[in-house]
Amino acid sequence: MATLSLEDGRLWYEETGEGRPLVFVHGGWMNGRSWEPQVERFADEYRVVTLDVRGHGRTGATDTDRYSIDLFTDDLEALLEHLELEDPILGGLSLGSMVVQEYLHRHPSRASAAVLAGAIRSMPPVDLPQGIKPLLSPTPALTSSLAMTGPTATFQSLLWSIRSVTGEPWLSVDPSVRATALEAVGDVSRTEFRKVFEALYRYEPSSLSAVETPTLVVHGDQEALPVRRQGDDLADEVAGGRQRTLANAGHLVNQDRPAAFNETTASFLERVGAT
Question: How far apart are CA 190 and CA 182, in angstroms?
Answer without folding.
Answer: 14
